[in-house]
Amino acid sequence: MKQDFGRVAVLMGGSSGEREVSLNSGKGVLAALKSQGVDAHAFDPACEPLNALRAFQRVFIALHGGYGENGAIQGVLEIMGIPYTGPGVMASAIGMDKFRTKLIWQVLGLPVPEYAMLDKDSEFDAVEKRLGLPFFVKPAHEGSSLGVFMVTEPGELKSAYESARQYGDLILAEKGIMGGEYTVGILGSEALPIVKIEPATAFYDYEAKYLRDDTRYICPAELPSAKAAEIQADAKRAFNALGATGWGRVDFLMDKAGRHYFLEINTSPGMTTHSLVPMAARQAGLSFEALCVKILAGARCG
Fold first, then answer.
1. Tens digits of residue pLDDT in 222-243
2. What is the reported pLDDT for 267?
3. If you placed Cys at 59, which of 43, 84, 96, 214 could pair as Cys (CB 3.0 to 4.6 Å)?
């Protein structure tokens, strides 16, 4: 029953590079929960002391990036004994690290694009030749495509690496898989319908995600039913492999031969008007309001 949720804090904003997106997500979640009779309140950890969370019985995490998605806030809430939405400390920490996520998936035989870790001493020309053009350079600890660069010409890798380093020291180069961009939402133990993303830009960058209105989304994705079921099963394996629970999103690419490759997990997906999990949930028969309540109902501590 909704009245059993008690006083609910919707965490939004924060101090990461995704603050504005988080504020949009949080405002949407807050309005949805209130419309369903939940005693929900906005809480921005960049403006309020975390100790004030002790006044709440449950927390909906709508933070993106940084301390909101890397296990830090989850650890604080566990110490306080407050149930929260989404994956726990370990899954959040690993999920925010694209490199270590790939290592776990590779051990399990889940397909990932070929990649190379970069530092200032890397043999950039050799990496370019091994991965082939185009490929992508990205910080391992950021989300929302912040700091992602597409390399399309020989000799561009070093400058892309230097630009990506503004967002962190752990940088990876990843082979371009150019047959389409997709995502699978996970809700509880179920995989939601697959969404295909068709950006008008060269790839699904920050602008295409949040600022443009010409990005096209196809849900359910136009895939053969057997292939869709295979990907959904693999996505659940990828999610569970990190110890993730509650809800999240697994992003993947397809090559032109129809093979899929997992990119990363998102342990606190966007909940804006452009966001993908709400889109998939609608296709599965869940309104935005019902989705928010269902996520909140799955809040747990530890």
1. 999 999 999 999 999 999 999 9
2. 95
3. 84
**Containing H/E element for 209?**
helix 206-210
173 has which bridge partners? 116, 137
For residue 244, the tally of other CB atoms under 10 A from its CB is 23
At 264, give phi and psi (nearest 5°): -165, 170
- Would you call 14 helix, strand, or coil by DSSP? coil
Taking alpha carbons only, the member of 275, 182, 197 closest to residue 230 is: 182
Cis peptide before 278 (omega within 30 of 0): no
Pick the CATH number of 95-111+178-297 from 3.40.1390.30, 3.40.1120.10, 3.30.470.20, 2.102.10.10: 3.30.470.20
Cβ neighbourhood burial of 226 (10 Å; 0-12, 13-18, 19+): exposed
Asked whether residue 144 carries a pLDDT value surpassing 60, the answer given is no
> Please, are residues 254 and 177 in contact by the beta-carbon 8 Å criterion?
yes
Q: Class assignment of domain 115-175?
A: alpha beta
Asked if 238 and 107 count as a contact pair (C-beta separation under 8 A), the reply is: no
Domain residue spans in the chain? Answer: 2-85, 95-111+178-297, 115-175
Arithmetic mean of pLDDT, 234-255: 97
Whether this prediction's pTM lies above 0.85 is answered by yes
Rounded-to-integer distance, Cα 91 and Cα 70, Å: 8
Residue written as token pair 């890798």: 157
The closest alpha carbon to 57, from 75, 30, 84, 31, belongs to 84
Residues identified as active-site: 18, 144, 210, 249, 251, 264, 266, 270
Alpha carbons 194 and 254: distance in angstroms, whole number: 12
* Share of residues in the chain with pLDDT > 90 (%): 81
Are the C-beta atoms of 274 and 167 separated by less than 8 Å? no
- State CA 41 to chain mean position distance: 24
- Which amino acid type is present at position 185? G
- Of 78, 12, 96, 95, nearest to 300 by C-alpha is 78
